[in-house]
């Protein structure tokens, strides 16, 4: 009970910023801003417009949000700008399409403060097909499975755009992605530094009538998958280059078995090009494994630097 009261007091004192990246959301942004205004009356709500062609800027301003602009197209670019510019103790990141439940934000913030977490993810729960299309559901499960396979047990919804962050998460996150793969990068960053995180189920609604999704199932799904594979190469170099080494060695072995058998029988190597190719594949395998070992040392040093930068910032509730 005492901890709960302390968490509520810390939450009351904390500066809360609601961050809403937007692109052509004139139909939904007022509803989104008003929802978070009612749920978090003391928070400052920021709408970052990303070259909208409609009245998003005007509608957001009339709804009472602080409106700013990021000219470089892409959600990742907008999130990077928001994290760099906005100063707060607690950050609530959501989309400006009125699909996320603003009433869940206070409970997510309370959990972040009470348990001194760095991120709380609002996992999406919806029965409406319009809210969460079948292709998106399948893609989310597949990509979440890939991250789990590579990085171990992770989040159940790595693509959720509804998250609450501590100050030290936001200010230690490099944000290198440009598009919708930003959520995946955020999740992997938390896993890489072994940050304390949690998930909270939240309802997920369909967009308002006249509002259209900017997410392409196949194009953005491919970009996210490509990011996961790239992060696998960067964060797990021994595993990645070790697998490449095994493939080269296996191919070399398959090509050379017949050569060995012929050599043992006749003492001759009749197919010299195949022998040269097998030798080259073995050398490539050795080089690949060596690269993995060297890059693992580099990755460890980089991770230590990132961890120290993260520890240099104040923890939640401090």
From TrEMBL:
Residues that span the membrane, as ranges: 238-263, 275-298
Any one GO molecular-function label of the UniProt entry: transferase activity
Keyword Membrane: yes
InterPro entries named in the record: Glyco_trans_2-like, Glycosyltransferase_2, Nucleotide-diphossugar_trans
Superkingdom to which the source organism belongs: Bacteria
Keywords, alphabetical: Membrane, Transferase, Transmembrane, Transmembrane helix
Domain Glycosyltransferase 2-like: residue ranges: 18-137
Protein name: Glycosyltransferase
Lineage: Bacteria, Pseudomonadati, Pseudomonadota, Alphaproteobacteria, Sphingomonadales
């Amino acid at each position: 009970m005492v901890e709960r009261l302390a968490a509520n007091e810390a939450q009351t004192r904390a500066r809360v910023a609601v961050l809403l990246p937007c692109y052509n959301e004139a139909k939904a942004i007022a509803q989104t801003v008003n929802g978070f205004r009612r749920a978090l009356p003391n928070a400052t709500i920021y709408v970052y417009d990303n070259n909208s062609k409609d009245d998003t800027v005007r509608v957001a301003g009339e709804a009472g949000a602080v409106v700013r602009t990021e000219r470089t197209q892409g959600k990742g670019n907008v999130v990077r700008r928001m994290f760099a510019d906005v100063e707060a103790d607690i950050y609530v990141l959501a989309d400006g399409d009125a699909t996320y439940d603003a009433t869940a934000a206070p409970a997510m913030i309370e959990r972040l403060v009470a348990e001194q977490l760095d991120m709380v993810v609002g996992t999406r729960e919806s029965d409406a097909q319009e809210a969460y299309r079948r292709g998106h559901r399948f893609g989310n499960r597949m990509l979440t499975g890939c991250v789990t396979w590579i990085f171990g047990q992770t989040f159940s919804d790595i693509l959720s755009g509804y998250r609450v962050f501590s100050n030290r998460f936001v200010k230690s996150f490099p944000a290198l992605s440009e598009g919708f793969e930003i959520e995946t990068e955020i999740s992997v960053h938390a896993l890489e530094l072994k940050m304390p995180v949690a998930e909270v189920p939240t309802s997920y609604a369909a967009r308002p009538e006249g509002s259209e999704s900017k997410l392409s199932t196949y194009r953005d799904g491919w970009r996210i998958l490509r990011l996961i594979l790239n992060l696998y190469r960067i964060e797990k170099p021994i595993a990645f280059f070790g697998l490449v080494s095994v493939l080269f060695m296996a191919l070399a072995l398959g090509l050379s078995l017949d050569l060995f058998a012929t050599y043992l029988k006749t003492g001759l190597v009749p197919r010299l090009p195949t022998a040269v190719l097998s030798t080259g594949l073995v050398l490539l395998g050795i080089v690949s494994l060596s690269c993995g070992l060297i890059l693992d040392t580099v990755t460890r040093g980089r991770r230590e630097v990132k961890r120290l930068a993260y520890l240099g910032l104040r923890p939640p509730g401090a």
